[in-house]
Amino acid sequence: LKLVFLPKRYQIVVGPLRYNQDCLATIHNADFMREANFSRAYDIGKVLRPYGSYPAWRAYVCCWAASTTKGLEGDFVECGVNRGSFSRMVMEYIDFRSLNKNFWLMDTFSGLSKEHVSDEEKISGIHKYRYAECYDEVVRTFSGFSNVKIIRGPIPETLVQVNVRSVCYLHIDMNCVLPEIAAAEFFWGKLVPGAIIVLDDYG
Known about the structure:
This protein is α/β, with parallel strands linked by helices. The chain is about 30% helix and about 20% strand. The chain has 6 helices and 7 strands, in the order E-E-H-H-E-H-E-H-H-E-E-H-E. The chain has a 5-stranded parallel β-sheet, sandwiched between helices. Strand 1 and strand 2 form a beta hairpin. The longest helix has 14 residues, at about 55-70.
């Protein structure tokens, strides 16, 4: 038996836990997990991630943001797509095919661009993570969507290819400071009132 003494600011929460993924746990309401529309969208998107499904709360935040902004003027943009799990969930959740909008998917589709990794990030070892080449897979995944634009290449170099005046939904998830700041600055002036930016990276 090992006793662990926690600092006073921590406490052990007695279960059962309603949600426990991605370092987020609660005994309170997690009814989003039983929402039929979200469950369908999540099941479609999670299979695109080869090393396990995305944490459901992160996926639901994206779906909520998309649902909140779909009635606004402007396009959807995701910077840092990888295999497209989040964007595919979002499209299913809000029936993106029926919207008069484009969804811009931007990524190298092969991992981080080493020239954009900062010295601090190199020390942390983030550039050593291996991403598999997935461009062809992404093209197949979104081939049924006529309003999806796939742009391959590193950010910020490819930002000029996004020919859009207004944006209502922006998802930034590139695991690297330089391109994330560049994307935020590029799209900031294009965001319409009420637009939402989802930032995946934290901590």
